[in-house]
Amino acid sequence: ISERIGCSQSAVSRHLSGKSVGRKKCGKKRCTTRRGDRTLRKIVEKDRFQTLGDLRKQWTESGVETSRATVHRRVQEMGYREAALDC
């Protein structure tokens, strides 16, 4: 297998045995969880025409402390256009 895919025998062995140790990921960890993101989605779906400041305030009241920029990024990740969410 190792010759076929062009890597060492030990790498193949570690992969097949499940003993391969994952590397640490680069970059900063997310400050929100999937649950928090679901909460934000519910808040956005109640009224899509709220400002980012209002969304942040409601999200903070539900227990997720973030910045307005984080709210903006999460809303964009959800696929909502910026035009509907004024500052």
Unreliable stretches (pLDDT < 50, length at least 5) are: none
Share of helical residues: 40-55%
Coarse shape: elongated
- Average pLDDT for all residues: 85
Strand content: under 5%
Structural class: mainly alpha
Tell me how many strands there are. 0
How many domain units?
1
What string, H for helix and E for strand, traces the elements in order?
A: HHHHH
DSSP helix count? 5
Give the N-to-C terminal Cα separation. Answer: 55 Å
Rg, rounded, reads: 21 Å
Major sheet attributes: none
Protein name: Transposase Tc1-like domain-containing protein
Organism: Cyprinus carpio carpio
Which features does this protein show?
5 helices; mainly alpha; 87 residues; Transposase Tc1-like domain-containing protein
Offer a concise description of the structure:
This is Transposase Tc1-like domain-containing protein. It contains five helices and no strands.
Could you describe the 3D structure shown?
This protein has helices spanning 2-5, 9-17, 34-46, 52-61, 68-77. It is mainly alpha-helical and 87 residues long. The model has no long low-confidence stretch (mean pLDDT 85). The protein has one domain. The protein is elongated. This is Transposase Tc1-like domain-containing protein.
SSE blueprint:
Layout: H1 2-5, H2 9-17, H3 34-46, H4 52-61, H5 68-77
